[in-house]
Amino acid sequence: MKLFNSMDQKIEDFKPMQEGKVNMYVCGPTVYNYPHIGNARPIVVFDTLKRTFQALGYDVKMVSNYTDVDDKIIKVAKECGVTEKEITDKFIKAYNQDRLSLHAMMPDAAPKVTDTMDAIIAFIKLLVEKGNAYEVDGDVYFRVNSVPSYGNLSHQQIDDLMVGARIDENSKKENPLDFTLWKRTEEGIKWDSPWSVGRPGWHTECVVMINQEFDGNLIDIHGGGMDLKFPHHENEIAQSRAAYETPIANYWVHNGMVNIDGEKMSKSLGNVIWAKDMIAKIGGNVLRWLMLGTHYRSPLNINEEAIEAAKKELNKVQTSLKQAYVKLGLADKEVDEAYDEALYAPFMDAMQDDLNTPNAFAAVFEAVKVLNQTIRQRDVDFAKLALQTRAIEKMMDVLGIDIPRLTLTQEDKELHQKWKAAVKEKDFDTADGYRKELMERGIL
Predict the structure, then answer these.
(1) What are the residues whose beta carbons fall under 8 Å from the beta carbon of 408, sequence distance 6 or more?
(2) For residue 419, which of 13, 60, 249, 368 sits 20 to 30 Å off, Cα-Cα?
(3) pTM value?
(4) The pLDDT of residue 163 is above 70
């Protein structure tokens, strides 16, 4: 497996810390609203990465968190006149519904900030004791200058960040780049701490959750959207280096952003699309196929043309598989676990090359072409047909595309025979009736 490592800015051979196992953490959502299609992209990308590793025989543990403590959550709860927990519970449920509708596997663990508070406070206390953080009037800030390698992930120099970054001016900070670990507050949900009654900053939770969920402070892969590289992931690394002298992860993987008709998706432009609405409109399979049609590191542009292209491409695969299932079913042949390795190999070669899904799609279409040729033979080689069918099924499994296997009943087979007989006898009215019924059953 080869992966582009954002830390080194190059594609590298993947070498897990423990042979045959992959530990992966993906930053999850702040749950104050429905997920938009930008949130859906990392769901699809990292689920596909997990599936690829599993197809290669790795045992994968994937963790993704919920940020259920945030100013935005407090604001929405106030506006709705309900508790913050009611808001977060509602949108965690919505997020998971979208995840499942996109045929993504649930994470092996999904910790919440509210359930991790004791560990977060203890971690901040450690950073203060080590001199990497300091308290001012009940707030705690991380001392960025205490980590010389700060900026390595985003490939920025601290001096440049001081000049060029949009930094909130805060006279309490020793350095404008220092970021909040603990915030003193009287508003919203809050906890007692050695410094004040308050709540944590955003950047600390992931470091603590990784340490807890993986029972260690270094994992194989840390993932998320490109927008998280700075400052969120940069700040995570700084804290981990300060506390444990590790960069948290050996491989940093980031997916590109989503554009709508060539424009960046944003509330100000009014072009935010909820994932649930897009799934309801075109289905989870099509949306997933659309997202995988572009390499994960590239910007994804969604428009009607791209949606229609995805529908047509996916329909080609579904139609060929259905025809294969019917051919095999009518001949009383079954598809088992054996597959055409020669067809499958180019697909996996592409997936192993930094999830090169455009090339993987090309391998799918070539396999479909070969399958169609086998289906059209006068004397069908059913053993070959079954192997080719299974190879394409395995490709769909890795891509997370859910195409249920069509199984013909005895009644289906008898109806198909009646249709064929009516056509042979040129009784087209009767044949049309049988054909309509077969189509209603999803067989034609």
Answers:
(1) 325, 326, 329, 330, 416, 443
(2) 368
(3) 0.95
(4) no
